[in-house]
Design brief:
CATH architecture of the largest domain: Orthogonal Bundle
Number of domains: 2
Oligomer: single chain
CATH topology of the largest domain: Transferase(Phosphotransferase), domain 1
Number of strands: 8
Structural class: alpha+beta
CATH superfamily of the largest domain: Transferase(Phosphotransferase) domain 1
Strand content: 5-15%
Number of helices: 10
Helix content: 25-40%
Largest sheet: 4 strands, antiparallel
Order of helices and strands: EEHHEEHHEEEEHHHHHH
Strand order of the largest sheet: 1-2-4-3
Distance between the termini: 24 Å
Radius of gyration: 18 Å
């Protein structure tokens, strides 16, 4: 990313491969990135408890005189943005697989009062078998004591309450972003990015005002899921009515999904990354 490099490394005593993310202290200082780097370290510590198979977790952290280093789960299967460009859009069935694993990752974070804030295909990494992990917690935030109100994230995936300056929000923001991301996996673009516009203000304006038109080719269950996730009104949004992730998991679109089997990674991934 902006502050350093990621290397593959092997732990000498076990032979296990990890990713080593090294942040350059000088570069962090120059770009006033101390809070961001420290935040990532804290967020990684928060979510790395309780063994979640769907988040890139941290095993160790250390620093040298000029580097900050995190040892993370190694994901060498590429990201969903890359696979979307290679594979083309996904079917509902394929998307359901990714959605289910990502939902369990978000549930794990939200149970620890962490809102992720940067859900998009580029941040979803695949392992060698094709299972997903949410990566890069640089923008994640602990909302246990104080709700955030900063406008951070990626345009086209940010919830209306995140875009509205000074509005406090919590895990609600991630459910809206999930809706945007699932739409992108199915259609190839964010629901709020019309005609390939690069204009961030236009994308934000659409997010705040536009009612998303869902194609007739979508099943009624899928339409209902996306309408629930893309609700501008937080009080009406799926995942935000008091039961959190359970509301999303219980939706008809996921009928027949055994969530314990999802957690155990027993469902077959739609795409196995080339070795």
């Amino acid at each position: 990313g902006g502050f350093g490099e990621v290397y593959g490394c092997r732990k000498a005593d076990t032979g296990k491969m990890y990713a080593m993310k090294c942040l350059d202290k000088k570069r962090i200082k120059m770009k006033q990135g101390e809070t961001l780097a420290l935040n990532e370290r804290i967020m990684l510590s928060l979510v790395s408890t309780g063994d979640c198979p769907f988040i890139v977790c941290m095993t160790y952290a250390f620093h040298t005189p000029d580097k900050l280093c995190f040892i993370l789960d190694l994901m060498n299967g590429g990201d969903l943005h890359y696979h979307l460009s290679q594979h083309g859009v996904f079917s509902e069935k394929e998307m359901r697989f990714y959605a289910a694993e990502i939902i369990l990752g978000l549930e794990h974070m939200h149970n620890r009062f962490v809102v992720y804030r940067d859900l998009k295909p580029a941040n979803i990494l695949l392992d060698e078998h094709g299972h997903v992990r949410i990566s890069d917690l640089g923008l994640a935030c602990d909302f246990s004591k104080k709700k955030p109100h900063a406008s951070v994230g990626t345009h086209g995936y940010m919830a209306p309450e995140v875009l509205q300056k000074g509005t406090a929000y919590d895990s609600s923001a991630d459910w809206f972003s999930l809706g945007c991301m699932l739409f992108k996996l199915l259609r190839g673009h964010s629901p709020f990015r019309q005609h390939k516009t690069k204009d961030k203000h236009e994308i934000d304006r659409m997010t705040l005002t536009m009612n998303v038109e869902l194609p007739d080719s979508f099943s009624s269950e899928l339409k209902s899921l996306l309408e629930g996730l893309l609700q501008r009104d937080v009080a009406k949004r799926l995942g935000c009515q008091g039961q959190g992730a359970s509301e999303v998991k219980d939706h008809l679109f996921f009928k027949g999904i055994d969530w314990q089997q999802v957690y155990l990674q027993k469902y077959s991934p739609p795409l196995i990354p080339p070795q």
